[in-house]
Amino acid sequence: MIPDKDKEELRVRSIRNGSVIDHITAGNALNVLRILGITGISTAIVSVVMNVPSKRLAFGRKDIVKIEDRELVPAEVDKIALIAPQATINIIRDYEVVQKKLVVLPDLITHVVRCPNLNCISNSAEPIYSKFRVLDSFVLRCSYCESIIDSDIATYLI
Amino acid sequence: MRDLTRDDVDFVLDYAEKMMPCAKAGVRLLQSRILALLFFEPSTRTQLSFDSAMKRLGGSTLSLTSEESSVLKGETLADTIKVVGEYADAIVLRHPREGAARMASEISSVPIINGGDGAGHHPTQTLLDLFTIKKESHLHDLDIALLGDLKYGRTAHSLAYALNMYDANITLVAPEGLQMPKHIVSTLDSVRLTEDIDEVIRDVDVLYVTRIQKERFPDPNEYLRVAKSYRITLPVLEGVRDNLIIMHPLPRVDEIAQEVDQTKYAKYFKQAFYGIPVRMALLAILLNGAT
Lengths: 158, 291
Fold this sequence. Notes:
- The complex is a heterodimer.
- By secondary structure, chain A is α+β, with helices and mostly antiparallel strands.
- Chain A folds into two domains: 4-102, Alpha-Beta Plaits; 108-156, Aspartate carbamoyltransferase regulatory subunit, C-terminal domain (SH3 type barrels, Roll), CATH 2.30.30.
- Helices cover 13% and strands 33% of the residues of chain A.
- Chain A contains three helices and nine strands.
- Chain A has helices at 4-10, 29-35, 74-80, and strands at residues 18-25, 46-53, 61-68, 88-93, 96-102, 108-110, 131-136, 139-142, 148-149.
- Chain B has helices spanning 6-19, 22-25, 44-56, 69-72, 77-87, 100-107, 123-136, 154-165, 182-185, 220-229, 268-288; strands spanning 34-39, 60-65, 90-95, 112-117, 143-147, 169-173, 191-194, 206-209, 245-247.
- In chain B, the strands form two sheets. A five-stranded parallel sheet of chain B has the order 7-6-5-8-9.
- In chain B, β5 (143-147), α8 (154-165) and β6 (169-173) form a beta-alpha-beta unit.
- In chain B, α1 packs across α11 (268-288) and α3 (44-56) packs across α11.
- The longest helix of chain B has 21 residues, at 268-288.
């Protein structure tokens, strides 16, 4: 008999080296992949677990993403805070957790979300990236046209 | 306007006051300095006003409009700004896209003045509006009504934000569907919203009228009804405060009747003139390092 706890962990095997993003707000695993630039054509080995039970998150569900052979850097980690503010990131080396990070909402985010205002200069052919000031959790203000994003941030991810 | 503190605005307004005697007579402050006027959408009034202000300061101007070659060839605004920065000491930029001036300021080697960006901001209009209020009325303890299309009218957005720095009591008078966006209203400390001009007109020191654009209304009859109910005529002005002033960023269509021009309340042409000393002040501060 395998104990219940171990059954949960067996859903996806442990990784040897890489990053485990845990406690992602349920439903946002694919958005986390988008933020990290992981698409169908990337070669990384990625495991995605969605809607597993969680005692910590509201609604009792969470997503988990495991990326092999890639250690996330702080700038990448902070972008995840935009859509999954309670996420934790574990850096794994040789099956051991060598570092545990909490996501921190950055003050300024560049080239992560597109401005909802189609007439904003950042949505034109000019050689610039979108830039947003983070006013509050889930409230962003475009540094160019001052448009506000205060809901559905994931739909504006680049 | 968000980038400016009240001290910054006061500094510009005080400097504009110093420029008043030179606004007609001229002064040789910026000789051999060149101001580039980059207007990617037409705005004759703003362009002429900057042109006049620079020339009154003894400087000269270069103009580029969107019909001219480099723009038609598809050059980016970023490249245009870099090149023109090599020819001129400062650039006034008018552009149809919001945020254009802020982008230009990030890449330009010379100062950029925002001459209006799409439906975004028009800060020099706001500064001249404040200067007009200061000269013709008072900025302290002010009761003001902003009237018209407050949803799309950018002059009203910037002005409301700036007036809040002076603790003004602001009444926003707009028809249903054209009221000021919530994200701006929520930043105002003393604000009241109404659809009825008659309710407020006798309780204000300044009535700031803006144009209601026909294209905002799907039904032409509805437009006519609304436009009529917001029209300022002599009967509408009965019983107003003795010191009331009426302002308008111009051009007007028929939201203020011509007969009102003859009253002591009408200050909109004076307001257009005040654009000169205010823009002279800005140019002197930017190009002459006035402190």
